[in-house]
Description:
- By secondary structure, the chain is an alpha/beta fold.
- The protein is built from 16 helices and 13 strands.
- The chain is globular and about 65 Å long.
- Bound molecules: iron/sulfur cluster.
- Iron/sulfur cluster (SF4) is lined by residues 60, 96, 122-124, 156, 245-247, 309, 335, 337-338.
Amino acid sequence: MATQTGLPLFVLGQGADPHSEKGVECPGELPPASDPDLVERARKAKEALGDRLFVLGHHYQRDEVIQFADVTGDSFKLAQQAAARPEAEFIVFCGVHFMAESADILTGDGQKVVLPDLAAGCSMADMATFDQVEECWEALEDAGLAGEVVPVTYMNSSADIKAFCGRNGGVVCTSSNAKRALDWAFEQGRKVLFLPDQHLGRNTAVLEMGMSLEDCVVWNPHRPGGGLTREQLDRARMILWKGHCSVHGRFTPESVDDVRARIPGVNVLVHPECRHEVVLKADHVGSTEHIIKTLQAAPAGSSWAIGTELNLVKRLATMFPDKNVSFLDRTVCYCSTMNRIDLPHLVWALESLVLGDVVNRITVDDDTAHWARVALDRMLALP
Ligand code: SF4
């Protein structure tokens, strides 16, 4: 069965409808989702704010929100775009919490970053807390290994974790530059502690840097000593944090087999947050920006099964009607936290700004911002 976009009909998991969730309460009067004037209200509020406002939209956001974005992109591109708009007093970030933090770190003191729904977090970022990472580092120090370990964190991490990397000679990476960041890290030390996504770390180390799976160990923050022996730590080159994306982690090797059986000649293109076994079976792997560019360049009539967040895949199907674009797995759902940002929250945030009320402002304290910036600047300086 297909939707209007030609995509298979999906089974949506619990939490796909943010209105059904009771998380962080919106502190204001949220307009009802049924209000037929929401689009017009958002348009008017945006117009009233003019150049004082800059709206960023992550690729995984809903269409109803993306239509109001001044720029769309992945998390790093959006943070850079925010930094390139010093004249904008208000940065409304349609994405998740760690992205708004990065935007606050990279923008000026006078700029205010707003996340329309504070419940829009990221399960992957939450899998590495500052205390857990400090505990891991202390264990590495006790083992006499910390001096040779360079911490590298994926952009999808809290400001605390980025700052940890900045303080300890490490760097931030994105899914586009993970190999370059690891090359740099191995010039500084003999081992890497890769946070918080084990899959991006493993896929980059094995598929792009020629390491073996035996070079990688997984640090489990819920087990004493990470669940690793001293010998395992000694032998490892990559110490992967036991974290993953709850969306990309749900694609399986069977998803790839199934789509190949259903669609003859299909090209399977997945994000590197997918599990290693899935990436091994795919034809192509790359960041969201890479996925978009690959589809742009693909010949008309070609078939593609995409393993990334569903909002983006649906949009790609609409953008490229001359290509047959499918979602890799019928049972994987939207990112429920990305989906928290909907039109009612956006309207509420924008109308509050018009009234002079800066709601849901995201701020990072000066010390954390300084050290996170150090790690981000090291990334920006990568060749
Ligand atoms: S798609 Fe995955 S990594 Fe991205 S915000 Fe959602 S849970 Fe986090």
